[in-house]
Amino acid sequence: MMSKFQAISFFLACSGTLTSQSSSSFLTAFPTDKKTLGVKGSNAYFNLTPGYRLSYKHGDTIDTLTVLNESKLIDGVETRAVEDRETKNGALVELTRDYYAIDSVTNDVYYFGEEVDIYKNGKVVSHEGTWLSGVKGAKFGLMMPGNPKQGQKFYQEQAPGVAMDRAEIVSVDERVRTPAGAFDRCVHVLETSPLEKGLKDHKWYAAGVGQVKDEKLELVEYGGK
Length: 225
Fold this sequence. Notes:
By secondary structure, the chain is mostly beta strands. The protein has a single domain, classed as YmcC-like fold (Beta Barrel), CATH 2.40.360. It is 9% helix and 52% strand. It has one helix and 16 strands. The strands form two sheets. Strands 1, 2, 3, 4, 5, 6, 7, 8, 9, 11 and 16 form an eleven-stranded antiparallel sheet that branches. Strand 4 and strand 5 form a beta hairpin. The longest helix has 21 residues.
């Protein structure tokens, strides 16, 4: 039997190991209760209210996100559909339906997959990037914590060979200016993927708004219900 001193030493050693692991690795497992996952809840940085819309622009590219009054049962969870419409020079390039669920207790938003239509000359030519949690080994990831903190690391997508985006919260107190306005205390997220070595995508989220900027696109308009 361990002495009191040995037990304390063992506990501290284990705690140090856990701290070390959490600081260098991305979370892949999320202790959620599917009874509290669904379309009810509120995340300040990720609005899932039907009718809410965010429009971004970069040059001749326009990307519009619209929260739909539609839901889809994925992996046993009711998820909210968000349409992502990208156009270039007025022509449709990609139309995606992203699916999210929110934990009504923690307000964490989870990503359950996407259905992708890629267009060329007005016709669908590919569905590359499509994945759904519970299908072909894919499982949901964390999109945005209800209470984001600097240093948090987590997988957003977990579809082996298809989509494996992961995020690190770099800061929770940055100021960002876009055509839609200036935003304080923004959450700065760095996204990477083991499927695309060297890829780094910086994104900023403002409370009460959502994503306001990434590497190229800037928010030009937002609002709705």
